[in-house]
Amino acid sequence: MVHIVDYGMGNLRSVQRKFERAGTVAIISSQLKEIEKANKLVLPGVGHFANGVQKLRESGIWEVLNHQVLVKKVPILGICLGMQLMAKHSEEGDVQGLGWFDADVVKFRVRDRLAYKVPHMGWNTAERSKPSLLFSNVPDSALFYFVHSYHVVCHVPQDVATTTAYEHDFVSSMEKENIYGTQFHPEKSHDWGEQMIRNFTAL
After folding, report:
1. Mean pLDDT over all residues of the chain?
2. Nearest to 49 by CA among 118, 117, 108, 105
3. Which residue in the list 80, 120, 151, 154 is annotated as catalytic?
4. What pLDDT was estimated at residue 113?
5. I want to staple 86 with a disulfide (CB 3.0 to 4.6 A). Which of 31, 46, 100, 122 is the partner?
6. What is the mean pLDDT of residues 56-77?
C-alpha cells in the first residue's frame, strides 16, 4: 500500500491519480497511525521550504517519517519540495531539513536572465549519474516537467541519480538505499513519469 503524505502542501490528487493510472492503490493520509502502516511513502510538496518543515513538525509527521524511513527502511519518494525537504538545510527560510541526504537547497543564481528564467519551468531531460531502478525502462531522451526556483546541491556524488542542464547543471534526482527524490514532477510528466511511478511501486 502506497501512502501519500498529506502535510498541507502539494498536488496530492494529481499524484494519487498518477498512481491509479499506473495500476496502484494510493491513499492520501495525514493520520500518523496510517502513515506508520505504509509499505511505501510519497512525500510531495509545492511551496516554501520553511513552511513545509513547520507543517511536518507541528503535525507530528516529522518524527513518524524519520522512524519509517531511517529505522524501518520503508521506501519513500520525495517530489519537488518533498525531495528538497530531505536535504540538511535550505536557503529558503534558512532552516534545517530532514537531513537524509548530505545536501543543501539553494536558489538558482543565473547570469543570463533572458535565456534562463527563475523559476525554472518547463520540460527537460535528466542525465543519468548512476544506474537507477527508478529510471528502469525510461530512455535518456525522456522529458520531465519542472517548476522550481530552488535546487539541491548534493555533497555526496554517489547519492546523485540524475542531473539536468539549465544555465548550469543541477541535481534533478537523488537516491540512496530506500530514499528516492525527484526535483521534477513525475505525476505531470506523462508516460515516462508514469513508468517511474510503476518502478517505484515495484521496488
Report:
1. 96
2. 105
3. 80
4. 87
5. 100
6. 98
Is residue 187 flagged as an active site residue? yes
Give the model's pLDDT for residue 35. Answer: 96
- Residue 172 exposure: Cα atoms within 13 Å on the Cβ side: 26
* Site of grid cell 518547463: 122
Determine how many CB atoms are found less than 10 A away from the CB of residue 25: 10
Q: What pLDDT sits at residue 19? A: 96
Beta pairing partners, 176 = 179
Residue 47 corresponds to which cell in the numbers above? 511551496
- For 122-169, the three-class secondary structure string (H helix, E strand, C coil) is EEECCEECCCCHHHCCCCCCCCEEEEECEEEEECCHHHEEEEEECCCE
The rounded distance, in Å, linking the Cα atoms of 85 and 43 is 9
> What band does 64 get if pLDDT is binned at 50, 70 and 90?
very high
CA distance linking residue 22 with residue 197, whole number of Å: 7
Question: Could you give the C-alpha distances from 131 to 134, 137, 147, 164, in angstroms and in order?
Answer: 9, 12, 25, 16
Q: Read off the amino acid at residue 21.
A: R
Class (C level, CATH) for 2-202: alpha beta
Q: Is the bond leading into 157 cis (omega within 30 degrees of zero)?
A: no
3-state secondary structure of 15: helix
Residue 41 CA to chain centroid, in angstroms? 11
Hey, where are the domains in the chain? 2-202
Contact 180, 75 (CB under 8 A): yes
Question: Which listed residue (91, 120, 185, 194) is catalytic?
Answer: 185
